[in-house]
Design a protein that fits this description.
six-stranded mixed beta sheet
C-alpha cells in the first residue's frame, strides 16, 4: 500500500492515540494507579505511532515538475508507470527510492554543508521511467526550489535536490554520477529491492 507521507503521519497519530486510550482504560480496569496507566499507555502509543511511520519504506514519486510527493510504502504494492508498465515495490523500512515517472532524466544533487575540505560526492542520475535507490529517505528541494548557499549548523549537513538533468548540466556541464545508485527501468515483472 502507498500512503501519502502526511496521511501516514495522521494515521500514526490517530493509531497512537487509540493505543494510549485502550491501554489506559485496560490498566485502570484492573486497578493499576492512574499515573502508571497513563505513562504505560503513552509509551505504548508513542511506540505504535513511531513504528507506523518509521516501519515503512519511503518513495518519492515524480510525475512532472509540478506533480511530485513523498509516500510511505507498506507491504509490496505495485506501481503503474505512465507507460503502462508495472513495478513491484519491495523494500525495507530503512530504504528510500525515487520513482521517475517522466520522460526526462533527473538528477538527485547532494548539497553538503561542511567546514571540512574533503567533499568527494557524486550526484545520482535517475533515468526516465525508472526507480532509483536514494541515499536518504527524504528530498529537501525540488526543481526550481534552489537550496541556500549556506546554513547554520555545528555539524555537517547533507540535503538533496531533485532537478532535471538538463538544468543540472546547464549549471555544471557534464558530470560523473554515483555508480552505486543505478536506475531500474520500468519493465514488466521488475522488483525494486536490494
Amino acid at each position: 500500500m502507498l500512503l501519502s507521507l502526511w496521511i501516514g503521519i495522521v494515521a500514526a497519530v490517530i493509531c497512537g492515540s487509540l493505543v494510549i486510550l485502550i491501554f489506559y482504560k485496560l490498566l485502570r480496569a484492573i486497578k493499576v494507579p492512574q499515573k502508571a496507566s497513563g505513562v504505560t499507555g503513552t509509551i505504548a502509543g508513542l511506540i505504535v505511532g513511531f513504528m507506523i511511520v518509521l516501519g515503512a519504506g519511503r518513495v518519492v514519486i515524480i510525475k512532472n515538475t509540478d506533480d511530485f510527493g513523498e509516500y510511505l510504502v507498506y507491504g509490496a504494492p505495485n506501481y503503474e508507470f505512465s507507460n503502462g508498465y508495472t513495478l513491484k515495490l519491495s523494500m525495507s523500512a530503512s530504504q528510500g527510492f525515487l520513482i521517475n515517472d517522466t520522460e526526462a532524466p533527473l538528477v538527485i544533487e547532494k548539497y553538503i554543508y561542511t567546514d571540512s575540505y574533503y567533499n568527494n560526492s557524486y550526484d545520482i542520475l535517475c533515468l526516465p521511467l525508472s526507480i532509483t535507490k536514494m541515499p536518504s529517505a527524504h528530498i529537501s528541494y525540488y526543481f526550481t526550489d534552489r537550496p541556500p548557499s549556506s546554513i547554520r549548523s555545528d555539524t555537517d549537513v547533507t540535503k538533496y535536490w531533485v532537478r532535471t538533468k538538463t538544468a543540472y548540466e546547464r549549471e555544471y556541464g557534464q558530470m560523473n554520477f554515483d555508480k552505486d545508485f543505478v536506475s531500474i527501468l520500468a519493465q514488466p515483472h521488475n522488483t525494486a529491492s536490494e
